Amino acid sequence: MLDPRKPPLAPAKGKPSMVMFISLQGSGKTTTCTKYADQHRRKGFRPALVCADTFRAGAFDQLKQNASKAKIPFYRSYVKSDPVKIAVEGVDRFRKEKCDLIIVGTSGRHKQEAALFKEMRQVLEATKPPKSPIAPR
Ligand SMILES: Nc1nc2c(ncn2[C@@H]2O[C@H](COP(=O)(O)OP(=O)(O)O)[C@@H](O)[C@H]2O)c(=O)[nH]1
Ligand SMILES: [Mg+2]
Hints:
alpha/beta, Rossmann fold, binds guanosine-5'-diphosphate, binds magnesium ion
């Protein structure tokens, strides 16, 4: 998405797309998720945010505040603590609501821990993103 050497990736309006944000803690995932969603909302997309960060206390409150301000629907289970289950529930809900850009924010860590990558893979596999959701422009 940000690599200038590659053709820019763009979701298509009305077609289901899913974007998962992955990075180390404090690198700007939650902030960028909302900016990305807001940018697309202004272009006429129906974006939605799923908070699959169960690691950092306050992660959901932060997302909730940003998303509410930007008027973007968001999801996070208050009862579940498994990020994979939360991601699946959120993605399912927004698919049913015909959102065309579902953005999943994941947990960051302080360094590249193997557990983080395992969790990312599990979230990705469990949410079954569409095969070619986002095509080069
Ligand atoms: N100056 C600046 N600060 C940012 C930017 N994106 C995020 N931040 C700040 O960096 C900190 C961490 O961002 P956050 O989105 O919570 O990162 P996350 O831990 O990866 O979700 C917060 O204090 C943000 O306000 C940016 O583009 N510019
Ligand atoms: Mg975050």
